[in-house]
Each structure stands twice: as C-alpha cells, then as structure tokens.
Design a protein that fits this description.
By secondary structure, this protein is an all-beta fold.
C-alpha cells in the first residue's frame, strides 16, 4: 500500500522559514494531483497548495507569495517551501495524493508551530 510520509515540521519564529517534505513510497507518477493541507486547533482542514502531474500549481490566498509547492519525480517527493511564516500558519500539515480514479491518500501529518 502506498504511504505518504511528511517531515520537516518544527518550531520557528515569526518571519522564519521551513521546508516540508512528503516522501511517497512508490511512484509519484500514479497520482494526478499532490497537495498540502493544514489543520489548526479547533478549525477544519484547509487546502494550502496543490501541484498536478503536469506541474501546474494552485495556492490558498493566505499563502500566495509566501509558500511554494514543488515535486521531484525522480525522488518521489513533494515539497512545501514556507517563507515569512506568521503565527496563523501554525497547524498540522498533511500531504495528500489524489489518484486518477479520484481515490485519495493522506499522510500522517507534521506539526508546524510559529511562535516567538
């Protein structure tokens, strides 16, 4: 069974940066769309960014200009570069893969805390 494993979370000061990684056990090419979502305490899970198999990207308005999603097909890994972090970015970040048939696979999540 394909697994998605996130890493790279942690504690960072406001204005800082973090790079999240999502390693896929198997070929990333089997997914039509890969994405990052986040869930803050007491809030619903929300879309952060997506990238298609062709490389097209989409971002939530709240992270545009600060976050960048990318992927390395050879390493079967998706990245989320996060810059100019603010306390409101504090959440558990989840990697998501959507198969061509619509089925979805989630990672276990990685905690990002932005605090001074």
């Amino acid at each position: 069974q394909v697994q998605l494993v996130e890493s790279g979370g942690g504690l960072v000061q406001p204005g800082g940066s973090l790079r999240l990684s999502c390693a896929v056990s198997g070929s990333i090419a089997r997914f039509n769309i890969m994405g990052w979502y986040r869930q803050a305490p007491g809030k619903q899970r929300e879309l952060v960014a997506t990238i298609t198999s062709g490389g097209s990207t989409n971002y939530a308005d709240s992270v545009k200009g600060r976050f960048t999603i990318s992927k390395d097909n050879a390493k079967n890994t998706v990245f989320l570069e996060m810059n100019s972090l603010v306390p409101e970015d504090t959440a558990v970040y989840y990697c998501n893969g959507r198969y061509y048939n619509g089925a979805i696979r989630w990672g276990q999540g990685t905690q990002v805390t932005v605090s001074s």
